[in-house]
Amino acid sequence: MRIGILGGTFNPIHNAHLRIAEEARDLFGLDRVLFIPAWTPPHKPTVGELSFADRLTMVRLATADNSAFEVSDMEGARGGRSYSVDTLRELKGRFPQDELFFIVGADSFHDISNWHRYEEIFRLAHVICVQRPGSTIDSLAKALPVALTCEFCYDPAARCLNHHSGHAVHALDGVLLDISSSHIRELAAAGRSIRYLLPEAVEHYIKEKRLYIDVRT
C-alpha cells in the first residue's frame, strides 16, 4: 500500500490542504492520505492557543467526505514536540510493508536542514515537495541540504531525486491555491466571511465555537 502523510498545525485546515492531498493521491497513486495534526509544532506556536482537540475535529470534518482521506491523532497521543522524523519512524513500525510518501510544502523543504534529524526522513519515506504560492523550487537538487547531496542522484526520466535508500524526492506542480490559515484567522477575527476558503463543515464549526475571535495573525 502507498500511504501519503500530510502533517501540519491545521489551524485551521483549508481547501488548499485538501487539494494538495488530492493531487498527491492522484498523481502518485496513493491508496490513502493520512492527515496528522501536530500536538506541539517545533517551529512555530499555535496561534491563539487553539486546542489540539479543536484542530483535530476540524480535520475530521474536512476529510469526512473522501474515503481515501484518514485522520490520525498519533502526535496528540504521543505528546511533546511533534517532530516529523518521530512520526515517520512510528508509522514505519506500524506499516513495515507499505510505502510512505511524506508531503511537504516547498517553503518547509527549503528549511528542512533545520529540522530535527532531517537526514533520517529520506531513509524512512519518499518525499513529495509541493510548490506553493510565493515558494517554489526550480531545482530539487539545489534545494537539498548540502550535506546530503552525495546521497542522491537525479533521474531525468522520472524528474526526481533518487536516494540510496530506494526512496525518492518528487516535485508536485499542481493547482496553486493561494489560501493560508493565517489569512482565515484574520478574517474570522475581524468578523468577515471565510466562506469558500475551507469546507462548509469547518466554517460552521469555527462560527459555532467562536474560534479565532480577537486573534490577530
Total E-strand runs? 8
The CATH topology label is Rossmann fold
Shape: globular
> What would you report as the Rg, rounded to the nearest angstrom?
17 Å
Low-confidence parts, pLDDT < 50 over ≥5 residues? none
How far is the N terminus from the C terminus? 39 Å
Secondary-structure blueprint of this entry?
Blueprint: E1 2-8, H1 15-27, E2 32-37, H2 52-63, E3 69-71, H3 74-78, H4 84-94, E4 99-105, H5 106-110, H6 118-124, E5 126-130, H7 140-143, E6 152-155, E7 160-163, E8 168-172, H8 181-189, H9 200-209
Summarize the structure.
This protein is an alpha/beta fold and 217 residues long. Helix content is 35%, strand content 19%.
Describe the structure.
It is a single chain. By secondary structure, this protein is an alpha/beta fold. It has one domain (2-177): HUPs (Rossmann fold). The chain contains nine helices and eight strands. The chain has an eight-stranded mixed beta sheet with strand order 3-2-1-4-5-8-7-6, with helices on both faces. The mean pLDDT is 92.
Give a quick set of tags describing it.
Rossmann fold; 217 residues; 8-stranded mixed sheet; alpha/beta
